[in-house]
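Following up on my earlier thread - several people asked me to post the actual chain instead of describing it. Fair enough. Here it is, all 344 residues.
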Amino acid sequence: MPGKDSRIAVIGAGAVGGVVASLVSGAGYNVEIVCKHEGLADRIRTEGIHLFGARGEHRVVMPAVACVSELKEKKDIVFLATKATDMLDVAERLIPFLKDTSVAVSLQNGICEDALGWILGRERIVGCVVGWGSTMHSPGEIEMTSTGEFVIGNIDNKTDPRLRSIGDMLKTVAPVEISDNIMGSLYAKLIINSCITSLGAICGLYLGEMLSDRKIRNIFVEIMREAMAVADAMELHVEDYGGKINYYKLLRGYGFVDNLKRHMLIRIIGFKYRRLKSSSLQSLERGKPTEIDFLNGYIARNGEEYDVPVPVNNRIISMIKEIEGNRRKISPDNFNYPLFSGFA
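Reply from S.P.:
Thanks for posting it. Predicted structure:
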């Protein structure tokens, strides 16, 4: 069973991976980080990661390599914190560094656990919801911007004695809840990301400005409705997101008061996080692909499999693919597309 003597790898030295590696290593665990670039690996080996913000200021030196193939030994636990777009390639490269008893914990956006299971073996995968925020200001300079918790669980809802030890490691970063419905918790986060992150990538607006627009709020609600219809077909119970958003209650009813309550909640979210910039928008601005295939794409694939129509999610996917391919500009005008005309 994983413990203090476990050999741990964190794959990815960005906003999430850098925080996890720093605080777990700083607590005395044996951590090696994979950080993609040799210059950053050298800096982490000599100067460390500089972490500041919600959990105080730390500078943590630890073993670091630039690619998975340079890992020093087989690992007991791997925390995957790469972009979802890099995940499948990384998983293939990890296979030689895993034991029969090794565990892989996905810290990524979207639902990546099924795809990881196809490559690494489903029995190895532990699901994880990251409920706190961080920003990488520059390589090796990371701010933990908000507190929150982890939710972890076995992706097949089986009793899993490994979870307690993994939870002990992650408690060095944030409180940990062990769930008996981790896929429902992951799906809850996927829904809100499929609204906020994907719509922000299409229009280019900060969240506050975006959600001040009634038409966009209506599209936001329709993404949720389609996602919940898919969840019902999958017989997946969707947990409350962040312990606060109950999608079943939020989407109940079509009357004036029901709609007013929904729009008020969405506007409150927009005001509270008004300066939030979509992570997918940031990827597009850097010329990088988004994680759309693991957000709205997950809803669309399961919609097709379970014969549930999801036209809004499908159109959002195609628009973002067009933006990635330089065939469409990022603009609020994208919401003038005919499919969205009924949401004004």
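The chain is about 45% helix and 20% strand. That should answer part of your original question.
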